[in-house]
Amino acid sequence: MPEPLDAVPRAAFGLPGLPPEETAPPTVGVEEEFVLADRHSRSAVYRSSSVVCAARAHLGAPHATPELSRSQVETVSAVCRTADELRAEIVRLRRGAAAAAAEYDCLLVPSGTAVLGRSGPPPVLDRSRYRALARRFGPVVHEQGVNACHVHVGVADREEAVLAVNHLRGWMPLLLALTANSPYSGGADTGYASWRSMVWSRWPSAGPAPYLRGTAHHTWVVDQLVATGVAMDPAMIYWHVRPSAHLPTIEVRIADVMPDAGTTAAYALLVRALVAHAVEAVRTGEPAPDVPDLLLRAACWQAARHGPIGTLPATHTRDCAPTAVSRLIEELWKRIEPLLSRYGDDRCVGDWLSDVQLHGPGSARQRRVAEQHEGRLQAVVDDLAVAPP
Length: 389
What we know:
Blueprint: E1 28-38, H1 48-59, E2 64-66, E3 72-76, H2 83-103, E4 106-109, H3 128-137, H4 139-142, E5 148-154, H5 158-168, H6 172-179, E6 184-185, E7 188-189, H7 195-200, E8 206-207, H8 215-228, E9 238-239, E10 241-243, E11 249-256, H9 261-284, H10 293-306, E12 311-313, E13 322-324, H11 325-343, H12 346-359, H13 362-372, H14 377-384
Parallel strand pairs: 8-9
Antiparallel strand pairs: 1-3, 1-4, 1-5, 2-3, 5-11, 6-7, 10-11, 12-13
């Protein structure tokens, strides 16, 4: 049984202090969240406790976990090194979780939001932490039940991880635009490409990472947020990209869960190369642009609203000039292509980026399916649902 992210010794995530060309590709792992939908109505249902127990029997206990809402299931990958390992692991987890869902008359749906909604506010899972969240944050908790894809990339040196976040934060709006997969919520078209990111942004600790001056500054910021009550603990620092609170990784949290395993794997490999590029920039002393948080937040709103259509502010630069998304993708590719080629991931990631530019992200796919079926959103759920083995 592959070991999940939380179970692997910290040393397995990378080797500090060595030039990138002298090391293997950084490790990578993926966490995916899914909606549980009733097989007959296709509406979200509250069966996560039963489905998670069954999924653990299929996958191993650490690889399936409950989430805040009882209509969600999360899968946690093993630590992977190669593209083939990662892709096979994502397929294994999705199929196992889908099989568990089927045992309880559910569909496992990779959509950032529940397409057909729920009967009333989603009940919070009966755990002490989640009950405490509900008491402190009130309706913000009951508005959640949204589903993301988090990518962990191994960075063993904590100082490098903190400083690399400064080089990554400006790319988060583009990554959101490329992965948007939540246009529908509660049976209606929200008009957004990623409604999930709008719902998630209601948490007071969510949003762009601040510009960090080093590990001590990062610790001070986190401690202050916890002291004010904005976050219950360091694990509740919901920045778009952050040094993990419990693993020697950088965690990129900006994406919606994506429609299929191949897309998820390609995105994770892109993130790995981007993180590796950021670490190289830290090691060579390249300054990171200190883009104001409000501009990053505005760019993320624009990405959530429109996806990869039109322009976005170039928040990876100091001037943040409005730039065609296609041009931003070209600039991103120039930065990461050497690393992708070194790791053997260039074709996989390049094909995915080309497909997004041609057909759009998951949000466009959902709307095409709805249009093909005269607006029947049940067809969207059926198209997304992961087939059990």
